[in-house]
Amino acid sequence: MKLGKVRLNLEYTVDTENQEMVDHAISALYDDIHNLVKTATLNDAVIVDTDLSETLDPDDIPAFLKEDDEEKDDEKALKFRTHNDKKGDIDVNGTCCQGEIDISYKKLVKVFGEPEESDGYKVDAEWSIQFEDGEVATIYNYKDGKNYNGDSGKKTEKITEWHIGGNKKIVVERIKKILGY
Q1: Which of 38, 39, 42 is nearest to 1 (CA)?
Q2: What is the pLDDT of residues 131-146, one digit of tens each?
Q3: Antiparallel, parallel or unpaired: β 44-50 and 2-8
Q4: Please, which residues have CB within 8 angstroms of residue 123's CB and are 6 or more apart in sequence?
Q5: Mean pLDDT, all residues of the chain
Q6: Domain limits at 159?
């Protein structure tokens, strides 16, 4: 298979107040791109990298053009480091619970490594995660372990209900995706 990269720098000068002219330019753009993609054979793949005019509404961009950028964003969003990596501390101050996940302690250790030291009070195990785009997340148990409940609390290894903390809800989706949910 031969991979080729085609960059389209198509520019249509139009009177943006003339909707018919704008619609025609968008239609011509779609046709040009569609014809280019249609020329790919079973033995060739064409990757179309576009540079569309800022005047186009993102909703007007064909889905097949946006997928590549979205995949790159997803890949970047899913790259992470944890408190176990020696690249400096992860600042999780100010984060709060954004969601929950039901998963084994063993699986969390397998994916994120050993947890950090707990607060010794309400939390028994906690992981700090920083994504490549700077977003941070925490995974922790809350008030169900031995630290908070003494002997009647669950052993850390038996805890399956975990909180996901962060500054934005998007970290919940990311954590779940990383863990296969």
Answers
A1: 42
A2: 999 999 999 999 999 9
A3: parallel
A4: 140, 141, 142, 145, 147
A5: 80
A6: 80-178
CB 82 within 8 A of CB 129: yes
Rounded (10°) CA dihedral 167, 170, 174, 179: 80
Q: How many domains does the chain contain in total?
A: 2
Residue type, 96: C
Same domain, 171 and 109: yes
Residues 55 and 101 in one domain: no
3-class secondary structure, 21: helix
> pTM for this one?
0.61
> Could you identify the residue written with the tokens 């298979």?
1
- Decide if 73 is inside a domain: no
Instruction: Give which of 95, 108, 99, 107 is closest to 135, Cα–Cα.
Output: 95
Q: How far apart are CA 79 and CA 72, in angstroms?
A: 11
